[in-house]
Amino acid sequence: MEDITAHLTMPIMALPSPYAAYLRVYEPLAAFPEPERADWAGYAARATSRDVRLVAEHQTSLVGIVSVPPRPVPAAEREAFVLAVEDDVHICPVQARLRSWVALGQFRDGLPETLLHAFVPPLSLEQAEADHEQWAGDEAGATLRILTATWSVPVSWFVPFAPADRVVDVSDGHPTVVHRTRMSGARRRVARALRTVRTSLEDMGGDDVDVVAELDQLGRWLEEFHPRSWVELDYAGLARLLGLRGVAADTSVADVAAALTALAEGDEAGAAVRYGAVVDRWAAIAALERAN
Questions:
Q1: What digits encode the pLDDT tens for the residues 129-141?
Q2: Positive or negative: CA dihedral 190, 195, 198, 201
Q3: Contacts of 134 (CB under 8 A, 6+ apart)
Q4: Which residues fall within 8 angstroms of residue 21, CB to CB, at 6 or more apart?
Q5: What is the pLDDT of residue 1?
Q6: Parallel, antiparallel, or unpaired: how do β-strands 176-182 and 230-234 relate?
Q7: For position 55, what pLDDT does the model report?
Q8: Which pLDDT does position 258 carry in this prediction?
Q9: Cα–Cα distance for residue pair 237/243, rounded to 1 Å
């Protein structure tokens, strides 16, 4: 296994990000109890950039997949994304083990057992389940700080942000797109959107349970964290699929905000147009999964 890892290190670092987007929450150091707070403060002092951290995360995941036997869940973790705002350090633990267990559960639910074992042998699954049970006993109730979406961005993820929160970087020839806002603003926008959608559905006599459920779930998730946290939407590998022109034309946050404003004003047609623009934009990206 050690020889495999050594041979893979350089090629993996050259690979682009997987086609996924991430919604992260960075909490201030004050949100962590001691001695964890001191540990994260020391980690932050030597932390790498967001992009480097993301590549390292993907590298570790790929090495686990090609190991013999496969390791669908990493053995240990102590990594984080770090955000410094006005000299205040904020931490978003990677939670690689918890996220891997969640992803493995979703993957397992979508496949028959015979096909599942072609990807993950039974012994590896049994070990992952045993580790999860042990971990759950030690850290029951832990909340995911990073949500992942593959091949598209859920429309509800644009709600917490304002158009001015968008930061684009094309310095290395490949675009990166990040939306970042304070937790207070994110909670306020999600709560307002939820009220607007509920009121509109009541007035129209509609019953779009999925939209309401997604916003409600997002709002509840944001409430789990420290009020001085920051929320970040990172297009990651999806920015490469959009390309420079697609990134320049991307107005998803503004379109969602405009759709909600139109809905609040009773302009159902206008809301449908702006909402449809976002859905169509990301449906075109999602369609590339089938093309591959």
A1: 556 555 555 454 5
A2: negative
A3: none
A4: 148, 149, 152, 153, 157, 233, 234, 235, 236, 237, 238
A5: 31
A6: antiparallel
A7: 73
A8: 98
A9: 10
Q: What are 190-201's pLDDT values in tens digits?
A: 999 999 999 998
Give the other-Cβ count within 10 Å of 58's Cβ. 19
Q: Are strands 88-93 and 20-28 parallel, antiparallel or unpaired?
A: antiparallel
Helices (runs of H) and strands (runs of E) counted in the chain: 11, 7
Sign of the CA dihedral running 236, 240, 241, 246: positive
Closest CA to 274 of 263, 290, 265: 263
Return the closest-CA partner of residue 186 out of 239, 230, 130, 147.
230
pTM of the model: 0.78
Summarize pLDDT for 201-229 with one digit per residue, the tens: 887 766 667 899 999 999 999 999 999 99
CB-count burial class (<10 Å; 0-12, 13-18, 19+) for 45:
exposed
Q: What is the mean pLDDT of each run of 10 residues along the chain (292 residues)?
A: 33 56 97 94 88 70 49 65 93 78 54 54 56 53 85 97 96 90 98 95 73 95 97 95 94 98 95 96 89 58
**What residue type is assigned to position 291 of the chain?**
A
Number of other residues whose CB lies within 10 A of the CB of residue 250: 21
**Radius of gyration of the CA atoms of the chain, in A:** 20
- Written as six digits, the tokens of 72 are 């669908």
DSSP three-state, residue 47: coil
The SS3 call for residue 88 is: strand
Determine the distance from the C-alpha atom of residue 97 to the mean position of all C-alpha atoms in its chain, rounded to a whole number: 15
Alpha carbons within 13 A on the beta-carbon side of 103: 17
Please give the Cα distance from 260 to 125 (Å, whole number): 44
What pLDDT score does 14 carry?
43
Q: What are the Cα distances from residue 14, in Å, to 20, 52, 150?
A: 17, 11, 20
